[in-house]
Structure formats: C-alpha cells, structure tokens
C-alpha cells in the first residue's frame, strides 16, 4: 500500500523554496550518522521544502539531508510519475520489513553510477512530518527501496557500501575516471 502526503502537508505554501548544492561522494558528511531533529521549527520546514525543490531539480526520487550538507535525520521522496506527491519524513525508523528484492540503485551524490542492491521488498516506517506530527507509511516496490536508501543515508551508509568487495573495487576504478571535476 502506498500512502502519500499531499504536497501541502509536506511543504507549506508560504515557503519560498531554493535549490541547494548537492554534496558529492566522498564528502565525510555522507558517512556520518545524522543527528535526531529535536525541534520542529520553521528552519526544519524550510529545509524540507528546499530539499523537495532540490530533489525535483536533480530529477531524483529521494534526497536525504546529509546530501545537502545538513547532518540531521530528514529525508524527502517522491516516486510518483507526476512528481507531485512529495513525502518529508523526520527521525524515521523502520518498524516492519518483509520480503527481499534486488533493485538497481543510483544516488544523486554518486552521479552516473548504478548498482544492484538487496533490500527488503516492503517496509513500514514511522517518523514525523515537518510540523512534528507522527506518521507511519507502508511502502513497497520503488518507494520501499527509496525509503531504505534514504534512511541508510541518515546512518552514513551509501548504496555502494552494500556491494560486494569485487563490485566496490570496480566502482572505485569507475569513479576515479568518471567523478565530477
Ligand atoms: Ni542516495
């Protein structure tokens, strides 16, 4: 089951959104465990709104706060084809998971590289919206994979960390040639 928040629930209409610069691998902020959000302030709502704008600008399905240089437990995602159903989740935890799936993943912080990763096929996550209201979302398919990928970011884990040693060595050689200048 997919449960999506309305855009309005995610991004207050009064917020002027900005595209933020993306942090690229191997910046150390990407490998740090992000801190819990303790205050549901206008700053965190502005951060969430800017992250949604940044995700759409970069044509991504998900974005975690460390990817814009903010080491806090916030992520945004939108797996809708219309790109009009963003979810923003703060302090997320996976409370249930089921099944297994192999999925080809990429990451806005590792532009151009894709690799197969094993994930749970469905997850139920609990967290808070940017106003501090508790929420739970059950997800499957791309949305479940996306949520696991983004929650990994909050723990300083990248999808390449799930690759075999051999594939990670191949990645390192590929990255040496293809990383952005
Ligand atoms: Ni990523």
Notes on the structure:
The chain has 181 residues and is of the alpha+beta class. Helix content is 27%, strand content 24%. The protein has 4 helices and 7 strands, in the order H-H-E-E-E-E-E-E-E-H-H. The strands form 2 sheets. It has a 5-stranded antiparallel β-sheet. Strands 4-5 form a two-stranded antiparallel sheet. The longest helix has 16 residues. The N terminus is likely disordered. It binds nickel (II) ion.
Write the layout of secondary structure elements.
Elements: H1 7-10, H2 42-57, E1 62-64, E2 74-77, E3 87-98, E4 101-105, E5 115-119, E6 122-128, E7 134-140, H3 141-154, H4 165-178
Bound molecules: nickel (II) ion.
Short description:
With 181 residues, the protein is of the alpha+beta class. The chain has helices at 7-10, 42-57, 141-154, 165-178; strands spanning 62-64, 74-77, 87-98, 101-105, 115-119, 122-128, 134-140.
Name a few traits of the molecule.
181 residues; alpha+beta; five-stranded antiparallel β-sheet; two-stranded antiparallel ribbon; disordered N terminus; binds nickel (II) ion
């Amino acid at each position: 089951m997919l449960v999506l928040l309305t855009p309005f629930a995610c991004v207050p209409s009064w917020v002027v959104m900005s595209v933020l610069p993306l942090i690229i691998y191997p910046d150390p902020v990407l490998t740090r465990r992000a801190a819990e959000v303790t205050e549901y302030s206008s700053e965190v709502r502005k951060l969430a709104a800017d992250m949604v704008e940044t995700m759409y600008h970069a044509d991504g399905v998900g974005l975690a706060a460390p990817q814009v240089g903010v080491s806090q437990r916030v992520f945004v995602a939108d797996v809708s084809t219309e790109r009009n159903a963003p979810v923003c989740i703060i302090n997320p935890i996976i409370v249930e998971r089921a099944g297994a799936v192999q999925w080809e993943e990429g990451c806005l912080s590792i532009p151009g590289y894709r690799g197969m990763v094993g994930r749970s096929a469905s997850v139920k996550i609990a967290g808070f919206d940017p106003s501090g209201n508790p929420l739970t979302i059950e997800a499957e398919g791309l949305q479940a994979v996306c949520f696991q990928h983004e929650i990994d970011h909050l723990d300083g884990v990248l999808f390449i960390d799930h690759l075999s040693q051999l594939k990670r060595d191949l990645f390192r050689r590929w990255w040496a040639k293809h990383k952005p200048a």
